[in-house]
Amino acid sequence: MFLPLLEDFQVAGQYSWGSACLAYLYRELCRGSRAGAHEVAGASILVQLWAWDRFPFIAPRRLRVSRAQQRTVDGQNMLMDVPLGHRWLDAFSISQNATHVVSAYRDALDSQRHEDDVVRQPYKELMGSLPEYCTNGQGSWLSTCPLICFHIVEWHRPERVMRQFGMVQVVPPNCAYDAQLHRIELRGHHHENWVTFHASYINMWENRGDTIVTEALNEGHDHQDYMTWYRSITRRFIGHDGALRDYSRNLVHQLRRVFIEDGYEQGLAGLEEGIKILDEDERQRSNLSHDGIDVQQDIDEDNESRR
């Protein structure tokens, strides 16, 4: 399917391979999220690098052994003409990371409590040293447009992740989900002319410059309205334990505030002990096991032995 597109390298270089790659990956991530799915195709290495750069608490620690990805220009270290992911070509330390314990990663994601737990713009300081081909499509990064790969059409929606672009995140407009698009498969369409079939979406892609999202730069703006909306429409926690811990912590802090405001300081001792227990529980869970131990099972067994 792809090989005929490489017959002429001059022509092949004019194709938007990045958008096609993302379209294919988005579709596979959708398939992989279904109950009963056991595998996912596409450029999954992009998902791994995306996660490592944005969630440092689940990423291995680079030992900075390899400097092959840099060169010196006028006394400054510059990235070589290689993909950005090449920075991860290094030796790692995984002493603080789980290796294959899924429950530990779920718990780590549920335990985020601070804004800086997520690095929303991991490449901000590198933009000036990237090869030109990495930034020559920058004008389309903020375009709400379809991404197309043969039979696949997936939407690029920057208006829902504005903080990734250093902008204020407001409540985004509703976006329609076209179930019919997800039913289109290659089976039975071997001779389909996808240029004709997806002509309307191709036209939107060609006019992507007309759908650029704009918003104020994020300079200390309050995202409270957005967060209130987001909490009302999303699933905030991956696991039940994360939700229970958050509820318990909020309840204890609310009671603590009530006791202080009403002058019942004698009751604070019990609440302070409750906070210590919650903190210790969170500390245990944040120490992600790298020995293949199920963190949840280990803590449950420890609690059982105390009864």
Give the strand order of the largest sheet, numbering strands 1, 2, ... along the chain: 1-4
**Which residues sit in consecutive blocks of at least 5 with pLDDT less than 50?**
288-307
Strand content: 5-15%
Tell me how many strands there are: 6
3D shape? elongated
Taking the alpha carbons of the first and last residues, their distance comes to 62 Å
Q: Write the H/E string, N to C.
A: HHHEEEEHHEEHHHHHHH
Helix count, DSSP H or I runs of 4 or more residues: 12
Number of domains: 2
- Helix share bin: 40-55%
Descriptive key words:
12 helices, two-stranded antiparallel ribbon, 2 domains, 307 residues, 6 strands, mainly alpha
Summarize the structure in words.
41% of the residues lie in helices and 7% in strands. It is mostly helical. The chain folds into 2 domains: 16-211, no CATH class; 237-306, no CATH class. A two-stranded antiparallel ribbon has the order 1-4. It has a two-stranded antiparallel ribbon with strand order 2-3. Helix 10 (240-262) packs antiparallel against helix 11. The radius of gyration is 24 Å and the shape is elongated. It starts with 8 loop residues before the first helix and ends with a helix.
Question: What is shown here, in short?
Answer:
Helix content is 41%, strand content 7%. It is mainly α and 307 residues long.
How would the blueprint of this fold be written?
Layout: H1 9-12, H2 17-32, H3 44-54, E1 61-62, E2 70-73, E3 76-79, E4 92-93, H4 102-110, H5 132-135, E5 145-149, E6 152-156, H6 179-183, H7 194-197, H8 199-206, H9 224-233, H10 240-262, H11 268-286, H12 295-306
Antiparallel strand pairs: 1-4, 2-3, 5-6
Helix pairs in contact: 10-11
